[in-house]
TrEMBL record:
SUPFAM superfamilies recorded: LEA14-like (SSF117070)
Superkingdom field: Eukaryota
Lineage: Eukaryota, Viridiplantae, Streptophyta, Embryophyta, Tracheophyta
Transmembrane segments: 43-69
Organism: Phoenix dactylifera
Domain Late embryogenesis abundant protein LEA-2 subgroup positions: 104-203
Protein name: Uncharacterized protein LOC103718557
Statement: the UniProt record of this protein carries the keyword Transferase: no
Disordered, as annotated region: 1-32
InterPro entries for this protein: Lea14-like_2 (IPR055301), LEA_2 (IPR004864)
Entry keywords, A to Z: Membrane, Transmembrane, Transmembrane helix
Amino acid sequence: MPADREHITPLATAAADRPTSDEGDPYATSPTPLSCRRRRRRLICCVSCTALVVVAIAVVLAIIALTVYKVKDPVMTMNSVYVKNLNINLTSPHAANMTVVADVSVKNPNAASFRFGESTTALYYRAREIGVAYGPPGTAGARKMFRLNVTVDVMADRLLADPDLLVDLVGGKLDLTTSTKVGGRAKIFLIIKHHADVMMNCSMTLAVSNQSILAQSCTQRVWL
Ligand SMILES: *[C@@H]1O[C@H](CO)[C@@H](O)[C@H](O)[C@H]1NC(C)=O
Ligand SMILES: *[C@@H]1O[C@H](CO)[C@@H](O)[C@H](O)[C@H]1NC(C)=O
Ligand SMILES: *[C@@H]1O[C@H](CO)[C@@H](O)[C@H](O)[C@H]1NC(C)=O
Ligand SMILES: *[C@@H]1O[C@H](CO)[C@@H](O)[C@H](O)[C@H]1NC(C)=O
Ligand SMILES: *[C@@H]1O[C@H](CO)[C@@H](O)[C@H](O)[C@H]1NC(C)=O
């Protein structure tokens, strides 16, 4: 029994001592750390929330910037060109008559549709403008083609005013140049608009005898 008491008392004192020592320390130090932890948690939460919002905004801006940056320019091609009614009488050249029909298409390589305005095609003979034609406006859907059918009626008086014409007619070849220009606009996210002007110049050599195109080369330029 005394042994038990002896055993109990140290345990009791130890048990009594432990809570006091445990309680003494927490009361002295833990109330501030507990509130600090909450404050820190709130602070960390606030900081991480702000960081997330900033990252989200940055990602959205990057996506918009990349989308706008990735807008590809429309590509214009001269599919075919032919001359109708080439009717030049060498003995009396005043009856000259000629119509140039060009099949020009504009490809829209973008996922957004491109709206094109009126197109202008000018026809030149040796740097002298001999005819102009205007095409109607239209829309090229996503990755679709917009076709311009251009028919240029040559102003015979301008063609005939060129002193080189007779030389070229005798040689059997006419050097012609077409210049087609069209402006378009792509709408992205309803608010961002991407404007592009496309111009294509084609120079060709026309055989007078059979009205066929002997050679043709085109260059394209795009303005944003
Ligand atoms: C060219 O014009 C002359 C004079 O007007 C005419 O006699 C001749 O038949 C015409 N030639 C052609 C191929 O039209
Ligand atoms: C040009 O030729 C076509 C057909 O040959 C004719 O219908 C047209 O009236 C002519 N135009 C001129 C300006 O001579
Ligand atoms: C363009 O012209 C060609 C030849 O005349 C014709 O086959 C085609 O249908 C025309 N396209 C349009 C869109 O008018
Ligand atoms: C047209 O005529 C030129 C020469 O004048 C010739 O080289 C060419 O092969 C001819 N083309 C056709 C389709 O007959
Ligand atoms: C096309 O031709 C026109 C008229 O000659 C010229 O002003 C323009 O710079 C040319 N454009 C290109 C892309 O060659």
